[in-house]
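A brief tutorial aside. Many learners find it easier to grasp structure tokens once they have seen a single protein encoded end to end. The record that follows does exactly this for Ras GTPase-activating protein 4. Read the sequence first, then the structure, and try to relate runs of similar tokens to stretches of the chain.
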Amino acid sequence: MAKRSSLSIRIVEGKNLPAKDITGSSDPYCIVKVDGEPILRTATVWKTLCPFWGEEYQVHLPPTFHAVAFYVMDEDALSRDDVIGKVCLTRDTLASLPKGFTGWAHLTEVDRDEEVQGEIHLRLEVLPGTPGCRLRCFVLEARDLAPKDRNGASDPFVRVRYNGRTQETSVVKKSCYPRWNETFEFELEEGATDVLCVEAWDWDLVSRNDFLGKVVVSVQRVRAAQQEEGWFRLQPDQSKSQRAEGNLGSLQLEVRLRDETVLSSGCYQPLVQLLCQEVKLGTQGPGQLIAVIEETTSTECRQEVATNLLKLFLGQGLAKEFLDLLFQLELGRTNEANTLFRSNSLASKSMESFLKVAGMRYLHGVLGPIIDRVFEEKKYVELDPSKVEVKDVGCSGLHRQQSEAEVLEQSAQTLRAHLGALMSALCRSVRACPAVVRATFRQLFKRVRERFPDAQHEAVQNVANMDTPVSRAKEAWMEPLQPTVRQGVAQLKDFITKLVDIGEKEELDLQRSLSLQAPLVKEGPLFIHRTKGKGPLASSSFKKFHFSLTTDALSFAKTPSSKKSALIKLANIRAAEKVEEKSFGSSHVMQVIYTDDMGRPQTAYLQCKCVNELNQWLSALRKVSINNAGLLASYHPGVFRGDRWSCCHQKDRTDQGCDKTRSRVTLQEWNDPLDHDLEAQLIYRHLLSMEATLREKHRELSRGTEVGTVPAGPGEAPEDALAALLGVLQDLQASHRSSLPGPPSSEPHCTLELQT
């Protein structure tokens, strides 16, 4: 049994943001932080106070996280980016909203003293004595403190307050992972305050000290237990009044928290076997459970259900059979060939999910280089005359203004070239298309031909209706692209014909060749510095290599086509974690801790170009090594420079790490390894939510059988299959009840102020 939490995040748009640039506008983007750690960054929307992002993410987290914060920033080319404001959602807030938070929220001002993170390690004792008892506080260490100085660190010290008395630790310079190991004592007096306050501060020589957070401990609780020790999460100073809001604009968000208790694999076997049996039987099966699931699933959650089912059957090797069953169900209720897969049916949603999971890597490999080139060229393109921006062209001293006609013609030429390159690359890629995708398309082609034998020529419809008189009248300025589009339609028809022209033997050969290769998980350029502890580290020592991560190893070479490469065996990876900013002057460096063939510990430092790339690589490495033996529970976020760790200043190179590893914090992507138990749990949760509807359907089928309105097929009747499903759901519900430790200890509370 395992407890898992995930966040579904959609950052929609902002409005009424303040102007941060001298032009009277801003260049906004969003940073998402979980417990103070940046995990995501949206694109920048240039020159606007009402940006639209529409970006979606899925984040897997440990159930112990506390809050997710959305920072709206203004990007600056010549100075540090400005913070416009933030929205913070606590875990308790999200837990109290089963359907998640959806709507607008006011941005609030970011106060440095409110931006706290990290934990402090304390041991508290009550010592009996004469005439009274004494309270002893051991301030041991802290981790993951907020960096308040320009060097990416802090100079922390601790103030301990009790009953009007204050004592302080020494200052630890340049560390977010300080160790003090200092002790303080206070006399416990009758009628004195019942709380001990421990505050962490960043010491500054010339300016005011920065608040890093505090912990308030009940003395009565310590007195009852005599001793208490542990890591305490630092909290902001709640005594400060909240700053005024409303003039910083608003952010529209969709955020949903999902907590899952995933049981052992054996618990889900009856459910998986029941569904697989139906898929194997196809439309010949009497139960039609898949049809009932589709019928009783609402439109708003059909995509999620389709994705979960598709992944479950993909893991069972039945994706093709599952989709074929859906094809037959869809074709059975369709009367016109040109309306196929136009609705939000389970078939269309499942096919969409299938293509993302099984075909996205192929699409990235074929079209990725061309799309990258489009972005790198940064050419201005606009075909709508009402939106054309006329700019100066020519060399220095010979500037002239382009005419509107020149801009339009140049834009048309650029678009025709891009479209031609995309279509050509796609049409040459038939052999590169995954065998399971080609086989599934072939089966779909066969089913459509059986159902609509006279409509084969309609397999490829007009692209975006651009080849009709209506479209030309509506958007006449798109006319320059018509010849390219018509040529593309012809190419696409030829491509699909070749794609589905695959025999059984060829399909088996393709699948066999693919099974012999270790699946590629992620690849791309990174900068690497490998160290064995010899000499100081510097950012200039990073060298650029092309990295490839498979389910066997992390390898790197000078170029993607290089035959000579070095590698880190996947089984040898012990942790993949971030490196604190001050170590290399960059916040986008990660470390891969592993052992070499002799069993000696080694570390590779990899520099990424942005926070998104950093977290994508961390996620990929963590997911493929999650079951490794010997994974580290703690690590050093700094580097061993000279004779000590830069993070905690410890001199023992083999010393236990000063921060906990975060192997459970990952981003969900289309190429994630399949998690069969989680997919089964998600399907169970969905079926349980519509249990009443399923029972009503079962009664309806039973009544139909009694009066002879439902023809009975061989074997069990339709209502028997539903009865079996309802029985499986009851058993799983009982297993979940037995796994619960008890009711939650506290009621969730909402701290988010919503916009009215």
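Self-check: The two ends are 42 Å apart (CA to CA). If you spotted this yourself, you are ready for the next section.
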